[in-house]
Amino acid sequence: MSTPPISSNVVWHKATVTRARREAQNGHRGAIIWFTGLSGSGKSTLAHAVEETLYQKGCRTFVLDGDNVRHGLCGDLGFSTEDRIENIRRVGEMAKLYMEAGVIVLTAFISPYREDRDRVRSMVAAGDFIEIYCDAGIAICESRDVKGMYKKARAGQIPDFTGISSPYEVPESPELDVDTGAAALDACVRQVVGEMIQRGIVAA
Hints:
Helix content is 41%, strand content 12%. The chain contains eight helices and five strands; from the N terminus they run H-E-H-E-H-H-E-H-E-H-H-E-H.
């Protein structure tokens, strides 16, 4: 999808309240924690559980969830390759704004294409984008499918369904690979938070 031209009349306005000042007030860095994986891999569950832990530590957080975003900001998009690319582009821009506000933004999107995830990574400085691969095989994801989406996809009732009729490109070098297919939720949360502590996003 081509990027629309930026008007020559648009000028970036620099705020006096900077990201650094917001982070100092918050007591932690802003960051984008990007959860990716198949439908049913546990992205949203893990993202919200990590947010709860961070909230209890007094952190400023927000979860951007795939379904929720498609109710509003991306409600005009379908699931074609072009629309998936645009969906992630919009989410990346929004996540960057949250991060600039000093917030730890946790995104839970299938985001099936490596190029799209890498594009969001390239929008921010090194260390600001943490890719978390929710590693769960398709058999496990199907077993968790209470909505019956996989069944419908296999029956041809849902076109362009990731993992069935549309590809998912596994991250080649994510910051963290979490075994959401077999590990307990609390263990996965500890793994993610531990990675954030190690990278200096939050204090121990």
